[in-house]
């Protein structure tokens, strides 16, 4: 074993002369080591990784002057460790775990000499009262975790000097005020302070609020849960954090938010749970990337504005918002269904969860029964005109966490089970089918079921395909290869154009039957001010697309129609030089 480099002896009780161990040892894991002190003659000259997690050691004992190669040191869960060693010899150390060392009272000041340290984990060290000022000299530090350090009262005043810091976790500490220098942390991405557990919820309104003067503009994730904030305590510059992706202000006491969301375009999750005094907050209509909205237990909240314009939303929780007017109308579901249909593979990947405090199914829901199951027949026009189907369940709040699935049976088809999904896949509905929806094992506590079918022509005022009037005039005509882009890029483009009020023509598959371009398509091209041509890989292989394009180019010459090409997964040079799949049209179309 002279050349042994890797040794794993977790939870082994061994003794003897450790000097006989291989001097080539690089990696040692001895979790649960029974020794109170690591012998000084332990071969550590070439150690790169040392794991002593959950050991009985009271002090490390190693002569760290000889541990010049050590990069990772794990002493977490060492309940008897009282002091850290002198770190002066560990110039190469990159990661230090000291989490849950419940007897640890202080960190040796030499920690500031660890020039290469990138991660310092001190979570759960409940007896640490302060961090040495030398911590601010850690020029490579990226992650600092002091969560659950309940005796820690302050952070070093010069913490802003750690320019490399990216993640600061400081939930459930004794810290009441962050140093003003924190705004100098220009690389900080993730800031989490306040509380995060049930104990914090109970004491939130008995303790003094945290105080934060200002925040770094670089922050993308901000967690200020259970800080006891009133509206006066919330940092005003939250509304200017243009890189913010996740915002959690749950458990605070403010009546309203003193900022709006107009400058937070990339926000993906917004959590305001347990804000029991919250009465209103700004419109969220510009948050097109928002996927999670949580407002549980906001009992004074009356109204939410902007829900109809959240194309990316996947989860909304408004449980126990007892004063809230039901914000989920037909318009909300129609807009969301349009958005979902515009995304490639969306039917298989996206689920929308909505939790609402209500005893009734809304009046606009066309089919309602007071029973745990429902049976209905799909109209014959469903396939051509449909946007989707809404299933609405009213059940006891006590079973929400257990209510897991419902069964959908289509006549002459195999039953399918769905787990809290709002968009069904695998059901090729053509119209005329008989459908049964029933709840699983919890059916005794489901009081009502509602079903509502969404139709495109009812909810969208702009013309589309056959439903368009021959006398209509369009602002935009979309030309595209249906098999390439109809259900992804083009659908998304069409939705966005219509959403901003652009009168847009898009054909349906019925208009493409036959060998000759239909009169309705021909007329729609002439009546459009702008033609957008989506040039995909197989565009030129379609005679329909080429006929459309010839007509479009003719209108450009005769009527000064504006033509905007979009190159979808196509090199523009192939179109310009008529090579690849576009070479087949050489001599028939002038692409310039």
From TrEMBL:
InterPro entries: Disease_R_plants, LRR_dom_sf, RPS4B/Roq1-like_LRR, TIR_dom, Toll_tir_struct_dom_sf
The organism's place on the tree of life at top rank: Eukaryota
Ranges of residues in domain TIR: 472-592
Pfam families given in the database record: LRR_13, TIR
One GO process term, biological-process aspect: defense response
Entry keyword set: NAD, Plant defense
MF (Gene Ontology): ATP binding
Coiled coil: none
Protein name: TIR domain-containing protein
Naturally occurring in which organism (per UniProt): Solanum commersonii (Commerson's wild potato)
């Amino acid at each position: 074993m002279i050349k042994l480099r890797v040794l794993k002896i977790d939870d082994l009780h061994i003794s003897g002369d450790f000097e006989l161990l291989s001097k080539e040892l690089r990696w040692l894991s001895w979790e649960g080591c029974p020794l109170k002190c690591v012998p000084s003659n332990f071969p550590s000259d070439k150690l790169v990784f040392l794991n002593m997690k959950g050991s009985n050691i009271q002090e490390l004992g190693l002569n760290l002057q000889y541990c010049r190669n050590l990069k990772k040191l794990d002493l977490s869960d060492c309940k008897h460790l009282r002091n850290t060693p002198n770190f002066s010899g560990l110039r190469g150390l990159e990661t230090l775990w000291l989490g849950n060392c419940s007897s640890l009272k202080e960190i040796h000041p030499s920690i500031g000499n660890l020039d290469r340290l990138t991660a310092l984990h001190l979570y759960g060290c409940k007896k640490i009262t302060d961090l040495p000022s030398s911590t601010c000299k850690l020029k490579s530090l990226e992650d600092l975790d002091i969560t659950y350090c309940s005796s820690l009262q302050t952070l070093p005043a010069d913490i802003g000097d750690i320019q490399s810091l990216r993640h600061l976790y400081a939930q459930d500490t004794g810290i009441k005020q962050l140093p003003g220098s924190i705004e100098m942390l220009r690389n900080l991405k993730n800031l989490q302070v306040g509380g995060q557990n049930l104990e914090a919820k109970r004491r939130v309104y008995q303790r003094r609020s945290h105080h934060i003067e200002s925040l770094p503009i670089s922050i993308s994730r901000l967690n200020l849960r259970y800080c006891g904030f009133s509206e006066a305590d919330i940092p005003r510059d939250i509304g200017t954090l243009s890189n913010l992706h996740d915002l959690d202000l749950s458990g605070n006491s403010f009546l309203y938010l003193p900022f709006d969301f107009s400058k937070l375009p990339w926000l993906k999750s917004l959590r305001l749970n347990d804000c029991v005094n919250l009465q209103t907050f700004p419109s969220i209509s510009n948050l097109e990337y928002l996927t999670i909205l949580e407002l549980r237990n906001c009992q004074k909240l009356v109204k939410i504005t902007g829900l109809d314009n959240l194309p990316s939303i996947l989860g909304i929780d408004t449980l126990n918002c007892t004063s809230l007017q039901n914000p989920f109308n037909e318009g909300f579901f129609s807009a969301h269904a349009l958005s979902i249909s515009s995304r490639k593979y969306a039917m298989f990947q996206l689920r929308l969860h909505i939790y609402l405090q209500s005893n009734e199914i809304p009046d606009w829901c066309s089919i309602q029964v007071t029973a745990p199951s429902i049976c209905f027949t799909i109209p014959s026009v469903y396939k051509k005109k449909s946007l989707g189907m809404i299933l609405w369940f009213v059940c006891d709040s006590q079973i929400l966490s257990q209510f897991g699935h419902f069964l959908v049976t289509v006549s002459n088809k195999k039953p399918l089970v769905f787990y809290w999904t709002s968009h069904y896949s695998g059901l090729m509905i053509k119209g005329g089918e008989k459908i049964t929806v029933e709840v699983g094992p919890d059916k005794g506590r489901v009081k009502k079921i509602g079903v509502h079918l969404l139709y495109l022509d009812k909810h969208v005022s702009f013309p589309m395909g056959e439903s368009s009037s021959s006398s209509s005039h369009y602002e935009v005509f979309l030309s595209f290869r249906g098999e390439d882009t109809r259900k992804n890029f083009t659908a998304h483009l069409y939705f966005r154009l219509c959403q901003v009020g652009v009168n847009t023509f898009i054909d349906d598959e019925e208009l493409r039957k036959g060998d000759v371009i239909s009169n309705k398509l021909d007329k729609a091209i002439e009546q459009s001010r702008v033609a957008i041509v989506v040039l995909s890989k197989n565009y030129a292989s379609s005679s329909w697309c080429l006929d459309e394009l010839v007509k479009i180019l003719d209108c450009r010459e005769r009527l000064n129609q504006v033509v905007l090409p979009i190159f979808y997964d196509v090199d523009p040079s192939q179109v310009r030089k008529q090579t690849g799949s576009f070479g087949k049209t050489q001599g028939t179309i002038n692409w310039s």
